[in-house]
Amino acid sequence: MKVSSERFLRDLHELRSFGASGIGKGVVRPAFSDADIAARKWLVGRFTDAGLTPAVDAMGNVFGLADGPSLLMGSHSDSQPEGGWLDGALGVIAALEVARVAKETGGPAISVVSFQDEEGRFGGLTGSSVWSGYSDLAEVDAVADYDGVTLKDARSGIADMVTGEIDPGQFKGFVELHIEQGLTLDAADEQIGVVTEIVGTREIPITFTGQQNHAGTTQMHLRRDAFQGVSAFNTLLNERLRNVVTPTTVWTIGHVALHPNASSIVPGKASFSMQWRDGDAERLRRIEQIVRDTAEEVAEARGLTVYFGPMWELEPTAMDARLRGALERGAEAVAPGRWRRMPSGALHDATNVARLMPVAMLFVPSIGGISHAFEEDTDEADLVAGLQVLAEAVTALND
Amino acid sequence: MKVSSERFLRDLHELRSFGASGIGKGVVRPAFSDADIAARKWLVGRFTDAGLTPAVDAMGNVFGLADGPSLLMGSHSDSQPEGGWLDGALGVIAALEVARVAKETGGPAISVVSFQDEEGRFGGLTGSSVWSGYSDLAEVDAVADYDGVTLKDARSGIADMVTGEIDPGQFKGFVELHIEQGLTLDAADEQIGVVTEIVGTREIPITFTGQQNHAGTTQMHLRRDAFQGVSAFNTLLNERLRNVVTPTTVWTIGHVALHPNASSIVPGKASFSMQWRDGDAERLRRIEQIVRDTAEEVAEARGLTVYFGPMWELEPTAMDARLRGALERGAEAVAPGRWRRMPSGALHDATNVARLMPVAMLFVPSIGGISHAFEEDTDEADLVAGLQVLAEAVTALND
Question: Where do the annotations place Zn(2+) 1 binding (chains A, B) (predicted)?
Fold first, then answer.
């Protein structure tokens, strides 16, 4: 099946004209913005031109349907408030090109999707979450963005596009191409990453409480300094995790809030986020134990109390062996020796779709690992390589 | 000279009726609030009744002047937004009682002062800063509080009280009694602390800048995490200071701000306050070198850049040997074996007054080390001990 890299790149660049930031190739196309809705209308036209049947559900997920049972491919075309041109758009346009060629050449039945609000104006992966039945639209409708606009209000902007519900039963599986959004492929000068699993995430808000005091009059040995607790916890945790983690395990303290957060006051309270991700559920559990034990030990040793908030849990999502195998063979054909198997550290729509059907994912490099920024980019040769792997895989899956 | 502990305590309790919080003995009496102005008017009356000549300068500092050259005593009667009943009020009322008895008994000439805005609604130690000539009233007039009210606006509330400038040349020295606001005396079950010096302070805002990244897709060895920089700096600094500091040296990271401060994003920037205090200027300088070297080493090792903001410097203020000696002999007479020499870790009006004349300070214990809170308190026996030491000292100084 011979895809057209020219047509693919032309569509990809045309899509970035919707919400073009004027800075590099960046786009400003958050879910339900005028630019996002215009892009979705343009997609409906492109799907129609490709011989697919356009369909839009109440959430604003836009499908281009092949006749009968089909393989679903795609990603999302909404962007971060300051986003890159590729992110989810790449997966949608690559799917469009593969589906179009398949239609033109009598190839396999390929349907295309652009999920809505993957970037989380109203939560996170909102469109695929609702479509997969994980979230209830009536409930999510009440969620408001930072400006107080609810999803229900925002959805009124696409009311004229909605055709009805799209039955997941018609799809045999889902394949999503995406940029890596990390440095692994770029640093290794590789073109393709075949995703083994989307890693699971755990996150616990932790608060140390000590004694707020005057920073001039309180001697060091009498202090119960909550920030010192965070620092000691962090240092000890880094040491202890060393023997438990793999090179792909990640852990992050990204949010810290001291109280009263004043230079002349010994912090009486320090709240922070403790997040970790790994592809193995058992390792996630072992790390949780170390996090809790370490925080309790540090609190005990320093006269602090420790409070653990509710843990946010997201299980690892395994990729389907058959779909993944087809992608691996495609990768070896297109980029021999220049591809790898790797976990996805980021969440993707495939996480939600996996509730309904077999899924697989493919990565192409992000230059400098940069994403969610106007500077986000990928070598066009790598974009085309990703497209070609998809085409190889769907052909093989159809054999 | 026989002071009256009953009259002293009655005045002290009456003063706390101005702005009484209704929670414990707490007061809400920030500078230029209705309660503060009412309290200052009450002080003018008390000074008059004591045979002193009341005088109020444009800043709202309220004096009760003895005739001719005199020793000045006092502190401040404004409070924190949620303050304790003693803080500066103790020093003002103790000075009033000593001056009153001196007047009644033909003792030494004692003048009394309540400085305005020690607690810093418009800066910090504002009243004594302006009176000592360290700050220019016209400049400070433009400073606004958190609600946008300028000092100039606030001062209009006391315009009818102002009598004119008060010449510092009439005072032979300044003695300030204050609560310790720390745990040292309370923990040692001692009644009196004679201040050796008001410690110097250094504070540098420090910023580590790394690379903001996705907390799921950025492998640990590729991260340049600014929060990890702060934690590593803190750990290393604590180790290195161990051989440099004395038991009274203190250092604090009280303010931390991460950017973007989100649980799923590797912090790209971390700004924090690094403050240290010590009575010895040379030690302050050595610590500064260690702070700067350590931050630079940590930045270098972790691929971060480090930025040092302008350093805030306040030199240590030595207490006058003669005044301090009189307080020490008074302490030994009133509380034999239950007093100590100690530095003041907090700033006080005496720091500013020292620009004009010899100064000395006396502490009484703070129960549990608590201050700047409604719970602030001191055993009444200790309050009276402080009053008696002042009386002993002024008598001795007059001999």
Answer: 76, 87, 178
CB–CB of A222 and B183 under 8 A? yes
Residue from the list A217, A248, A275 with its beta carbon closest to the beta carbon of B219: A248
Using the structure block, give the residue that is written with the tokens 């480090």: B306
| Claim to verify: residue B33 and residue B178 sit in the same structural domain | yes
Verify that B285 and B341 share a domain, yes or no.
no
pLDDT of residue B314: 87
Band of pLDDT at residue A58, cut at 50, 70 and 90: very high
Cα A202 to Cα A312: distance, rounded to the nearest angstrom: 6
Q: Which of A252, A271, A375, A376 to mutate to test the interface with B (most CBs of B within 10 A)?
A: A252
Residues B348-374 have pLDDT tens digits of 999 999 999 999 999 999 999 988 889
Q: Which domain holds residue B266?
A: 200-314
Q: With H, G, I as helix, E, B as strand and everything else as coil, classify residue A328.
A: helix
**A214 marked as part of a ligand binding site:** no
Q: Are residue A134 and residue A61 in the same domain, yes or no?
A: yes
CA distance A119 to A117: 5
- Chain A residue with the nearest C-alpha to that of B229: A231
Nearest CA in chain B to A180: B217
User: Given pLDDT bands bounded at 50, 70 and 90, which one contains residue A32?
Assistant: very high
Q: Buried b vs exposed e over B104-113: b needs ≥16 C-beta within 10 Å?
A: eeebbbbbbb
Q: Looking at residue B226, what is its pLDDT?
A: 98
CB contact under 8 A, B262 and A251: no
Query: Residue B254 and residue A262: Cβ atoms within 8 Å?
Result: yes
The number of folded domains in chain B is 2
Measure the CA–CA gap between A177 and A244, rounded to whole angstroms: 31
Interacting residues of A44 by C-beta distance below 8 A, sequence separation 6+: A54, A56, A62, A64, A161
Work out the pLDDT band at A314, boundaries 50, 70, 90. Answer: confident
Q: Is A13 assigned to a binding site? A: no
Convert the pLDDT of each residue in B121-132 to its tens digit. 998 899 999 999
B398 — pLDDT class (breaks 50, 70, 90): confident
Q: Is the ipTM of this complex over 0.90?
A: no
Searching chain B, which residue's CA lies closest to the CA of residue A346? B216
Please name the member of B183, B220, B275 whose beta carbon is closest to the beta carbon of A263. B275
C-alpha closest to that of B202 among B286, B281, B277: B277
**Which CATH number do you get for residue A154?**
3.40.630.10
Q: How many CB atoms lie within 10 A of CB B31?
A: 28
The answer to whether residues B171 and B85 belong to one domain is: yes
pLDDT in tens, A235-273: 999 999 999 999 999 999 999 999 989 898 899 999 999
* Interchain CB distance below 8 Å, A264 and B247: no
- One-letter amino acid at A334 equals V
Q: Do residue B218 and residue A258 have CB atoms under 8 angstroms apart? A: no
A372 is in an annotated binding site: yes
Question: In the listed set B314, B338, B360, which residue is the last one of a domain according to the structure?
Answer: B314
Chain B partners of A232 at a C-beta cutoff of 8 Å? Answer: 235
Residue A223 and residue A281 share a domain: yes
Same structural domain for residues A181 and A236? no
Residue B119 marked in a binding site: yes
| Chain-chain contact of B255 with A277 (C-beta, under 8 angstroms) | no
Residue B229 and residue B257 in one domain: yes
Residue A124 confidence class, pLDDT cut points 50, 70, 90: confident
Are the Cβ atoms of B256 and A227 closer than 8 angstroms?
Answer: yes
Strands (E), B199-283: 200-209, 213-214, 250-252, 256-259, 265-266, 269-278
- The end-to-end CA distance of chain A, in Å, is 12
pTM, 2 dp: 0.85
B232: nearest CA partner in chain A: A235
Same domain, A170 and A106: yes
Q: Return the pLDDT at A372.
A: 85
Nearest residue of chain B to residue A253 (CA atoms) = B263
pLDDT per position as a tens digit, A144-188 = 998 899 999 999 999 999 999 999 999 999 999 999 999 999 999
Annotated ligand binding at B11? The verdict is no
Of the residues B314, B329, B355, the one at which a domain ends:
B314
Distance CA B26, CA B32 (A): 18
